[in-house]
Amino acid sequence: MTLDNIKEEIEKAKTVIILTHESPDGDAIGSSLAMYQALKQMGKEVDIVIPEHPKTFDFLPCANEIKKAGRDDIEYDLGIALDCTDTTRLEGFNPWYDTAKVKISIDHHGTNAMFADYNYVDPVAPACAQILIVVLTSMGIKIDKDIGTCILTGIITDTGGFKYDGITTETFEFTASLMRIGVNVSEVYKKVLQVKTRANFELTKLAVNRMEFFEDGKIAFTYITKKDEENANAQTRRP
Ligand SMILES: [Mn+2]
Predict the structure, then answer these.
(1) pLDDT tens-digit map of 45-85
(2) What is the whole-number distance in angstroms between the Cα of residue 99 and the centre of ligand 1?
(3) Using CA atoms, how far apart are residues 187 and 205, in angstroms rounded to an integer?
(4) Which residues contact 165 (CB under 8 A, 6 or more apart)?
(5) CA 216 / ligand 1 centre spacing (Å)
(6) How many whole angstroms from 108 Cα to the centroid of ligand 1?
(7) Is residue 129 located within the same domain as residue 209?
(8) Interval between CA 157 and ligand 1 midpoint (Å)
(9) Are 169 and 222 found together in one domain?
(10) CA of 42 to the centre of ligand 1 (A)
(11) Are 112 and 230 within one domain?
């Protein structure tokens, strides 16, 4: 079974690189940081590479350990892609994934291209982070407050705050179990969905000002550019 293979490969690996999709959201970052901490708990030499991400997620445990690039002096024993439908979405950092001796992908998109050696894809899960509960538990990892906060961030982001189709009884059971170990669910909720950074506000302003309506107001169109994001200083970039 895939899950057994994944467990086995993770146990065997000494060096691991964790990657996620470009323009990472809370699920991408939360899932990656949860896996990163789990592998650290297991004593692995692990790198998490996310060249830039919205500042909203700077509060997450271990966010300051995220790297801009992988190591070029080694070929990683294992590459893990999270929340990622295909390798083109790994952007310019797929060389480290491509050269990894074994590749794992854990994802919840029905369109996943099954590009890895071991693909654990559950299209019914509302977030990649929710799949990690199963994966990490099967690996014997203790989901502590920090790992739980990262997983919760992924779930809250991808369910729009528990409101989209796809949330399950497990979503709430897991959230309840996090509350029991002291995770402040309402604080995470506010930080992820309600706090507006200055950059966020500036970008919203631009988007609203550029909005155009078509088809009798049934369709609204607007945009922001990469340049706008840079001007608003919206992203945390790794040096
Ligand atoms: Mn996701």
Answers:
(1) 999 999 999 999 999 999 999 999 999 999 999 999 999 99
(2) 25
(3) 26
(4) none
(5) 33
(6) 7
(7) no
(8) 8
(9) no
(10) 25
(11) no
Query: What pLDDT shows up at residue 92?
Result: 63
pLDDT at 205: 95
Instruction: Using a CB cutoff of 5 Å, list residues around ligand 1, an ion.
Output: 27, 83, 128, 158
For residues 170 and 60, state if they share a domain: yes
Within this chain, do residues 114 and 29 fall inside the same structural domain, yes or no?
Answer: yes
> By CB neighbour count within 10 A (0-12 exposed, 13-18 middle, 19+ buried), where does 128 fall?
buried
3-state SS, residue 80: strand
Secondary structure string (H, E, C) spanning 112-132 = CCCCCCEEEECCCCCCHHHHH
At position 188, the amino acid (one-letter code) is: V
- Flag whether pLDDT at 93 surpasses 70: no
Q: Would you call 49 helix, strand, or coil by DSSP? A: strand
pLDDT in the model for residue 196: 85
Cβ neighbours, 10 Å, residue 119: 17
pLDDT mean over 169-178? 92
Q: Residues 56, 132: one domain? A: yes
> So what's the pLDDT on residue 94?
77
Range of the domain at 11: 2-193
More confident residue, 22 or 32: 32
pLDDT band, residue 114 (cuts 50/70/90): very high
What spacing in Å lies between the alpha carbon of 119 and ligand 1's midpoint? 15
State the Rg of the chain over Cα: 18
